[in-house]
Structure formats: structure tokens, C-alpha cells
Amino acid sequence: MVSLLKGLWLVFKHAFKKPVTEQYPEEKPKLAPRYRGRIVLTRDPDGAERCVACYLCSAVCPVDCIAIQATEDETGRRYPETFRINFSRCIYCGLCEEACPTEAIQLTPDFEMAEYKRENMVYEKEHLLISGPGKYPGYNFYRVAGVSIGGKDTGEGIEEEKPVDIRSLMS
Amino acid sequence: MMTFIIPICMLLGPVTIASLLVWGERRLLALFQERYGPNRLGILGIGQLPADMLKMFFKQDWIPPFADKFVFVLAPAIVMATALFSFMVVPIAPGFVVWDSDVGLLLFLALSALGAYAVVLAGWSSNNKYSLLGGLRASGQMLAYEVFMGLSVMGVAARAGSFNLTRIVESQSSCWNIVPQLIGFVIFYIAALAETHRTPFDLAEAESELVAGFHSEYSGLKFGMFFVGEYIGVTLMSAMMAVLFFGGWQGPFWSGPWWFILKTILLIMSFVLVRATFPRARYDQLILLGWKYLFPLALLNLLITGVVILW
Questions:
Q1: Which of A75, A152, B15, B28 places its Cα 20 to 30 Å from the Cα of A159?
Q2: What is the ipTM of this complex?
Q3: Which tens digits make up the pLDDT trace of A147-167?
Q4: By the CB < 8 Å criterion, does A24 face chain B?
């Protein structure tokens, strides 16, 4: 009997505490920088697309929501002709971000993606591509990659030495 | 003129309070659980009430083909009718009562016992095993609590020397019955919880075991009548407790109907507090509690009250 009254008193005291509810649309939640939300495609510091259309993200995607068509520009640099993510399928697992060798695909702390039409959940490349470098401001894949590409020959990258002319050693 | 105003007040007042409870209980429950509850629509979320009502009106009022149609329709009407009828004898202020009956208390007890029929009939006529189990539980529960409910208020009646509720209120002018009849009040409160089928004694609907118990098959406005009927029952029980144990319209100063209304509302809030605190009792636990502890305790209370009065 006493314990019952104690329980009642305890619950009654809770009436004077501040509710823990977050009033969502007015009061936005504080999301961590690593929160896995809307997926974006980032650019190099010099403004070129980072994505090299290697298909690793679409291969690793457990729900097959990424569709890519690769192509090359005149300098031999690969880029995606189409890059399509179906967000009605995406489970925001972040495996695509882990698989990406060029840090192009990144998940952002934004979850407000509600749509009235299901078709609008499919994001094309122009919807995904952002103008900045995302989480890795200084990173430029082709500057550290060691491949020759338009505007950068082999050996011109950062911390990269000129290729050694093997035949010169013999003379 | 007053012969029209009083019954209309006694009909509309409880229905208004009960329908406000649809929203009020959710807000209060949320308050106790550190939430907000419905607070979006209108001031403090009061717009939730008309929204819920509209929703209820527009829902399909489905009668299952396997149900006993007549009894199925009758059952929700009984809930509302018995609860509203009982307000007939509740005195709000001196002279402000529909029927100042000399058997008011007995009439209230009889009508509240009739109210249990609604649950039993609803469970039976739904022709559904979960509903039937709910109805069976309600009947067993009714046998357990109705006895000590009647006995617990006999002490009050003995002290007033009358079953007339106005007389009972007047008998508390020097000291509210809650002090000499504390045991009676506790027993009556427990019985009131069981009578209104509220947690911890909502065994007849026990949604974790019986889907929705006796009203599993009900939808639309018929479900709404069960829903509001429960709140009218809560209002009725609170009003009766205010009359029987808390001195009705009498207050420490400025006695009047506002004291009665204040007491009733506080008691309704206590019902919500009990719901927020206690888990559902098991079926046999309620029956055991009723017959083995509260029934003898109520008898003992009556005996001691009698001895004190006749001393």
C-alpha cells in the first residue's frame, strides 16, 4: 500500500519536469557531422568532379540503389555520364562512402527529403552534385594519383617524383 | 423554468467534460510522462477534440455479419444511458439536482451495476472469442467489485442517516467524510477504478491480451460511445466521490457549485495519475483482492462506523 502511494507520488512529481520531447519542425535536432543522411557528389578544390565512375559504390550498395554510366572526356579523364540514386531504396548505410576511392560520394547530415511523389525520390546527377569539396576540403584525387591525365603528366603530382629513365643508368 | 435548465445542464455538462477528457487525458498523461501530448491543433491542442470527433463521425460504422445485430447496437447505448442517468441524482448545489431522491445513492449503485451489462452484452453479441473473453472478465470483475463498492459507501449513508445525496452533503458541513471514512474512500476509489474499466483494472479490454476486449468489433460512432462512455463514467465516479467523501459544494469559504466542480476535476485528474502509474492487474488478482481483502475490510469499516454512531 505504501509502495503504491510512493509510486503515485513519484509519477506526480514528474508532472513538474520539463518534457523531453523535441518539437521537431520548430526545433531542429542537432545532428553529428558524421550523420548519415542525404548523399551528395563532391568536387575537387579546383571545381572538377571527383567521381571517376569506378562503379565501386554501385557494386557495394546492398540495395542496388545507385546506377552509373561511365564515360571519358577528351583528355582521358573518366567521369559519370549519369549518376542516379534512388532514395526510396537507399538505406543510408554509408558503404558507398567507404568504398569510394576518390572521396566523391559523401553522406551529409540532412534527412528532410520527404516528397509527395515517389518519382521525385530518384535523384539524378545534377541533384546530387554540389559545388564544394564536402568533408575533405584539400583533397584532390588526380593530384596524388600518379596517373597521367589532361593538364597533369606523370610525376607532376604532389610528393611525386619524376619517372626514372631506366636506360640512363646504363651509360 | 429551472425544471428544464437543470436536466439540460446535467446532460450537457458531463458530456462536455467527458469529451474534453478525450483530449485532456492525453495531455495529462503526457505531462506525467514528460511529454507534450497533442499540442498542435489550436490553443494547447484543444483542436484535437473536434478533429477526433470528425474522424469518428466519418468512419465506417461496421456491424459484423456474424454479430447479434440488435444487442450489438444496444450495448453502446446502455453505456451512455446508465452513466448519464446516474447524473440525475448528483447534487451540484443546494437545490440544483434533477431528482432529489431519497434513494439517490441506491439508484446510483443500481445504475452503475447495470452499466456492466453493456460490456457483457457487447462482448457476447460481437461473436468473437476475444470480445467474449472481455465480456466474461467484465462480468466476473463486476461480481467482485460491486459488492464492496456498495458496502464502502454504507458508512457514509449511516453517518448521514439517509440515502439522499443532498442530505449526505449537508451532513459533512463540519467535517468531510474523507476523514472519518478514509477506509471507505479508499475502497470506493478502487471500486470506481474497476467500475469504469480503467487501468489498473481494465481487464475487459486489456489490449495486450484481448486485442481490444469487448469492443474489438466496434467501429465508428459506436466505438466512440464506448470511448466517451468510459469518460462519462470517470466523471460520474469523480462527482460521486466529491459528493460522498469531499463535502460536495461545501468548501472552506465561498461554498458553491464551483467547489463541487473543482473537486470533481481534481478527482478526474487523480484517475489519470493512477493510469499513468500502475500496470494492469491480473484478472485473478482483482478478484482475489476484491473478495479476500476489500470485501471484509468494507464490512469491518461499516461495523466500526455503526459502533461509533451508536455508542
A1: A75
A2: 0.72
A3: 777 777 777 777 777 777 788
A4: no
